[in-house]
Amino acid sequence: MRKARKLGWAIIALCLLLAPVSARAQTAWNLEQGKSVTAMAMSPDGKLLAVGSSDTHVYLFDEAGKQIAVMKTGNVVTSVGFAGADRLLASSDDRSLYAFGLGGELLWKQDLKKRVEGVAPSTDGSTAAVTVQNSSELLLIDPADGTTQGKASLGARAADVAAAPGGGYIAVGGKDQNVYLLDGSGNVLFKAGMNGTIGSVAVSDEGRVAAGLTTSAVVLLDRDGGKLREIAVLDSVKDVTLTPDGETIGAADYAGHFYLISSSGKTIWQTQVPAPATQLAFGAKGETLYGGTENGGIYSYDVENVVAGAESAAAQKRIVQIAAAAAALLLIAAGLYLLKKYNRLSVFKRIWQAKWIYLCLSPAFILLIGFMYVPALSGLYHSLYEWNPGGRSSFVGLANFRRILSDDYVGKGIVNLGILIVTGLLKAIVPPLFVAELIYHLKSKRLQYYFRTAFVTSMIVPAVALLLIWQNLYDPNVGLINRFLEAVGLDGLTNSWLGDPKTAIWAVIFIGFPFVGILQLLVLYSGLIGIPDELIEAAKMDGARLPRIIRSIHLPLLAGQFKFLIILTLIGVIQDFNAILIVTGGGPMDSTYVPALQMYYAATKFDELGYASALGVSMFFVILIITVVNMKFLRSSQE
Amino acid sequence: MPAPVRATSAPRTIAGLPMPSPSAVRQALLIGTLALLIVLTLVPILFMFYSSLKSNSQILGSFWSLPSPPQWENYGEAFASIWRYVLNTILYAGGASLLVVGLSAVSGYVFAKKAFPGKEFLFLLLLAMMMVPGILTLIPAYVWYEKLGLTNTPLAIIIAHAAGGQIFGTFLCRTSMASVPSSLFEAARIDGAKEFTVFARIVLPLSVPILATIFIMQTVGTYNDYVWPLLTIRDSSMQMIGVGLTQFTKQFGITDKGVQFAAYSISSLPLIVIFSLGMKYYIQGMVQGALKM
């Protein structure tokens, strides 16, 4: 017992160690609902943040997140950048390039005839690199008036373009998986192949290039195209950015992580926000990091603080890990010591001797653990999460369970479930008992066998086919039931049985009439056969007649069978939604919903896997309670 | 068959013949009631067969009359659209059942006749899973199979049924094999038989009935599966019969009710074969399962 408790504590401690430590954003604000951050840039003095949005606007914020100006373009903003201290350029899906003053006034607009995919002005305002759709040429534009100063041919279409703050370098991530570095006037300095599709590039004043790949990696290149570092991140990289000195890389990935990576390739800090990250920008000296997400969230982080925090957290984590390792070693040592003390070390010898046995059992237990325990535990665990497999899952505590309580479909489902359980119990006991008694009282053993077999014969139709046949029997026009009612002159009773919310649940219950369940019949019948003949004979001698024999001998002696059937029915009815899914799909309206069906729909129709798991877990606990109550109380009262 | 019995025995009582004791009347009543219940139970099946031989206009126009002429070609059309589902299901069910039988036989024997450290714990681990209802694991299992890349492959069905079925199978095998006297194995071992020989030559032959029971229970269980293939199999060419029956009319644009019923009849054929070969084992398995709870 003591050992078990110790083990329990150890497991709890381990869980605490493994629990994700989430760092909070320092400040965060939001674009309005439904807008996505599509572009982001920081002014050279680090005072203003320009945010391009999917709602065609460019918003200008100050450091604190106060909105200063709004500028309108013709379509989704694809890219923004500051050109000098007095203007910013924005490209839009309406094939135009815009220049705005910092008060929001339009300075000029240039129609480029093709969709503008990216604009990257140097922050000193000397030049701006522009890429357009389906073109392998890079346009160099004068931010002052929008005239084309020059062109550079790359030989491949560009996925992303970036300019160094000083205007000395332009980096292009090509769709051919090459990174190109150009000087300020458009001469290609190098071309370096990546082993993945390039999502984003950034370049520093020294010509250091960072490229974010969709294969979940960030690559840092030096001025000559040599690969300095390759850093693995957790998901497809959406944006990378560099501090002006090129010493720190910022990266954002699709799972909503923001990273700060040092030029030595070490991830110095990371955090996760609850939406796919799209954009990143550093403040002027790299002291602030701004991140934007697909659902319009904008986060700002104080780089120095978060790095310090991350370092101390890492140090803490290391200490904890060391402590845990030491504790584990200590535990093992203590265990060995105890075994030695009580002279039980031979257990290892016996384990070794039994190696073939373990080998024989291994396939069974690999299947058991890998495909039964893992899903069961995963269900228990993820019922506390908003579960997005393959993406980001966030811990929501008991929110899923609270939602069950306020879910109208579940409420309706529980009412229906109550009806199904009561009728299910009646169906499981009364008709099978009746038939079992009838068969039991047949004199001819041969007839007994024939009748038993005849009832079992109904199994030859697959369960789904039987349900579909019943669905047909209920058909308002060509169904057997309505036709039969018409034939016997009860036209008034015909109904669209499954289509009427008032009758639908009862129609589902009536499926399987006259409810002679085969398992139930066989269980009760073999129970009857098991009753010793002497008992019956003795009762008959005392003058007991049949009803009395059934009441006083059969029913009490079948208590075990009844208990078994009741449990089986309860567990079965709570879980079963096949019939309802096939025959009515929960309708009409919500009239035939059951909680299990709502679980299935939550998972398949609405992709709410955490909520579905919580429903499954709730039903599991109900079933568990039923089973435990049955084992503890019913048995002891019977014996 | 039972109807004439009533016809002959009932009038006799009314006639007041000396010997037709009340018990004979009672027997006749019993038989009559049972016959009625069996007819009612089988109504959907009879209706299925009856309607499978009719065309739409025959069903609409002459609902109660016999199918004349019988539309046997309904079966041809139904077979052409669902044979693939039936074949898939037979293959999956056969594969899963063989796996279950193999795993259960080995584990059952080990748990019944071998002593090794951790035996109780491992058996408890197995037993505990019997308490976990499918409703808990359904959705997480789907996500897990998806993650492992098993969805939309036959393995999704086979592995799931093998992993789930072996638990109860092992349980049945253990009980059954425990009753085989150990002296039998000892004698063989003294004669120099290897462990494998003991298992293959003594344990397996003695366990044929229980293994047959497990095989048939598992096959029927897999054959009737609906929700799991609905979740995990997307390609129609890999789908199982349960899901297939609910989808084939739309997929092949079948509007004839008769063809639908013919398809239901065809889908029953494999089960008819199984039950005619091993009804005894199936009943045994059901009753045994019930009594073990």
TrEMBL record, chain A:
Q: What is its main location?
A: membrane
- Where, by residue number, does the polypeptide cross the bilayer? 319-339, 359-381, 414-440, 449-470, 504-531, 609-629
Q: Which GO terms describe its biological process?
A: transmembrane transport
Q: Which CDD domains match?
A: TM_PBP2
Please give the SUPFAM superfamilies that the UniProt record associates with this protein: MetI-like, Quinoprotein alcohol dehydrogenase-like
User: What GO cellular-component annotations does this UniProt entry give?
Assistant: plasma membrane
> Which InterPro entries does its entry note?
Apc4-like_WD40_dom, MetI-like, MetI-like_sf, PQQ_rpt_dom, Quinoprotein_ADH-like_sf, UgpAE/MalFG_permease, WD40/YVTN_repeat-like_dom_sf, WD40_rpt
Q: What compartments host this protein?
A: Cell membrane
Task: Tell me which residues make up the ABC transmembrane type-1 domain.
Answer: 414-630
The membrane topology noted for this protein in its Swiss-Prot or TrEMBL record is:
Multi-pass membrane protein
UniProt keywords (A-Z) are: Cell membrane, Membrane, Signal, Transmembrane, Transmembrane helix, Transport
**Does Cell membrane count among this protein's keywords?**
yes
Q: Does the keyword Phosphoprotein apply?
A: no
- What domain of life? Bacteria
The region annotated as signal peptide is 1-25
**Which SMART domains did the record assign?**
WD40 (SM00320)
| Family of the protein in this entry | Belongs to the binding-protein-dependent transport system permease family.
Put simply, this protein is called ABC transporter permease subunit
